[in-house]
Amino acid sequence: MGLQFIARGAFVALWLLGCTVKAIDLDTSSKESICNATVLIQAGIMDYYEGSRYGGTVGMFQAPYYWWEAGEVFGGMLENWFLCENTSYESVIYDAMLAQAGPDYDYMPSNQSMVEGNDDQGVWGITVMDAVERNFTNPTEKGAPGWLAMVQGVFNTMYSRWDDQSCGGGLRWQIFTWNSGYNYKNTIANGCLFQLAARLGRYTGNDTYLEVADKVFDWMVDVGYIKLSDKANVYDGATTDKNCTDITTIEWTYNQGVVLGGAAYMYNATNGSSIWETRLTQLLGGSTDFFFKDQIMYEATCQDSKTCNNDQRSFKSIFSRMLALTSTIAPFTAETIDPLMEASALGAAKSCTGGSDGHTCGTNWQLGSNDGQYGLGEQACALEVMQSLLIHQRPAPYSANDGGSSVGDSNAGLNKSTTNVLHSDLTITHKDKVGAAIITAVVIAVIVGGAVWMMF
Ligand SMILES: *[C@@H]1O[C@H](CO)[C@@H](O)[C@H](O)[C@H]1NC(C)=O
Ligand SMILES: *[C@@H]1O[C@H](CO)[C@@H](O)[C@H](O)[C@H]1NC(C)=O
Ligand SMILES: *[C@@H]1O[C@H](CO)[C@@H](O)[C@H](O)[C@H]1NC(C)=O
Ligand SMILES: *[C@@H]1O[C@H](CO)[C@@H](O)[C@H](O)[C@H]1NC(C)=O
Ligand SMILES: *[C@@H]1O[C@H](CO)[C@@H](O)[C@H](O)[C@H]1NC(C)=O
Ligand SMILES: *[C@@H]1O[C@H](CO)[C@@H](O)[C@H](O)[C@H]1NC(C)=O
Ligand SMILES: *[C@@H]1O[C@H](CO)[C@@H](O)[C@H](O)[C@H]1NC(C)=O
Ligand SMILES: *[C@@H]1O[C@H](CO)[C@@H](O)[C@H](O)[C@H]1NC(C)=O
Ligand SMILES: *[C@@H]1O[C@H](CO)[C@@H](O)[C@H](O)[C@H]1NC(C)=O
């Protein structure tokens, strides 16, 4: 009995020791502490990575994580490469970005071509733009263009799908008629186009991009997706069936973040113009009002009800990245953004006590402990909010004339046949809808038939 008691005591002591060692200790004033924390978090990310497994696909995470989310996660890891100055994952990130670029280097890989939406392509584009602005290792593979040319390929193919036939403009959510969501024009697709245009404009100094950014932003305001006020709202989208008057007023951090980030780049590219200062201030007002509670970031629409899906559980990651970038290229926002990021990072660290490794991160950063929800999205969010604390210790995003070295091609993607065919085919009549339904049926038949065929 005595022995048993001692054994039990020792076990409890070891267990307690294990917990304190395993939880993520975050000293927000220490770069080493922050980067140590992100080592653990990225190890958690790599648990989901297919590309490092035998027979796995480079650049993809395991099901149920979609292709777009891989784009988002690699964006966070690329920022980590830059902010922590740690090259351990450099080749993983490099290989992933090249493997998923597709045959035309515009982030339309053949594996995704049946299902890819404008938003998916746009999120990858934002990550590759980060490679451009962070002077990430340039591609050396034969035939591969520079990262900048790839972003221009994404931008050109996306913008060629601009559709004046309904809603007075805008991009549809889906690229292909057979996907459900083709009749929805959403903020994330248009927000990505806006942001890419703003970043390309700032980086290259080519005003054409800034004009496009202005046009996309104005459209989102006109149609009511962005409601400017001291606390600007960014809504999700609307359908072409109703000419975009049936707005889905749900708000997500990633929509707000992508539009906020784009506005910050416009502010910087226009040398601090008062019009973009006002818009940026308004968008920041909405961001802090709606997506922070007790100074800590949260996914207001679904977090407290624990109904966030896999996609939604990753949104705080790109939102964190955008807030951090905003605080560097629009320095007047830093006094608002920095304390919120610090409080959120500390909250996130307290959530990283779950899982068998003892440092798996949760969704809810207000709780002060782990909420039992875990996944790739939770890891990505914790990574980005914590590393964002280093943003002012490293250079701001480079441009072509101060540090960037990526080779561009402003015509990239323009002679792609699917781009132009789709663009000229955008008038949707009843006949086309029936056609689309038939294509959908055929596609499903081929997929189901193919699967059945393979089983025998
Ligand atoms: C960071 O990790 C290294 C290696 O594990 C360790 O030696 C160091 O003390 C850690 N630093 C901090 C500030 O936690
Ligand atoms: C760099 O990252 C790797 C992989 O996460 C990690 O093992 C290593 O400790 C990191 N180096 C430093 C100096 O933090
Ligand atoms: C495309 O999918 C196949 C089958 O899953 C896979 O083997 C291949 O690596 C994928 N290619 C890319 C570029 O994702
Ligand atoms: C576009 O056209 C140029 C010149 O005709 C050609 O060199 C290039 O390979 C083409 N690009 C694509 C993606 O088809
Ligand atoms: C559709 O919406 C656009 C933009 O708000 C507007 O300019 C256009 O007149 C509308 N068309 C119809 C048919 O209502
Ligand atoms: C940018 O703004 C500063 C301060 O207002 C001004 O001195 C400078 O000339 C402007 N530069 C350009 C390129 O507009
Ligand atoms: C634009 O960004 C740079 C950092 O790249 C910053 O130094 C500069 O102050 C910004 N411009 C304005 C007008 O805030
Ligand atoms: C960017 O990368 C190029 C090529 O590796 C290099 O020559 C240049 O010094 C880098 N710029 C910065 C600011 O590090
Ligand atoms: C600026 O960008 C536009 C749009 O891609 C392109 O047509 C034009 O050639 C570019 N101008 C320069 C000087 O590169």
UniProtKB/TrEMBL annotation:
GO BP: any one term? fungal-type cell wall biogenesis
Superkingdom to which the source organism belongs: Eukaryota
Which N-terminal stretch is annotated as signal sequence?
1-23
Q: Which residues cross the membrane?
A: 434-455
What reactions does this protein catalyze?
Random hydrolysis of (1->6)-alpha-D-mannosidic linkages in unbranched (1->6)-mannans
Per the record, the major location class is membrane
Q: Which UniProt keywords apply?
A: Cell wall biogenesis/degradation, Glycoprotein, Glycosidase, GPI-anchor, Hydrolase, Lipoprotein, Membrane, Signal, Transmembrane, Transmembrane helix
The record's annotation in SUPFAM superfamilies points to: Six-hairpin glycosidases
Its subcellular locations are:
Cell membrane
Q: Name one GO molecular function term.
A: mannan endo-1,6-alpha-mannosidase activity
Q: How does it sit in the membrane?
A: Lipid-anchor; GPI-anchor
| A Pfam family the protein falls into | Glyco_hydro_76
EC numbers listed for it are 3.2.1.101
Q: Say which family it is in.
A: Belongs to the glycosyl hydrolase 76 family.
PANTHER family for this protein: MANNAN ENDO-1,6-ALPHA-MANNOSIDASE DCW1 (PTHR12145), MANNAN ENDO-1,6-ALPHA-MANNOSIDASE DFG5 (PTHR12145:SF21)
User: Per its record, how is this protein called by name?
Assistant: Mannan endo-1,6-alpha-mannosidase
Annotated organism of origin: Lachancea nothofagi CBS 11611
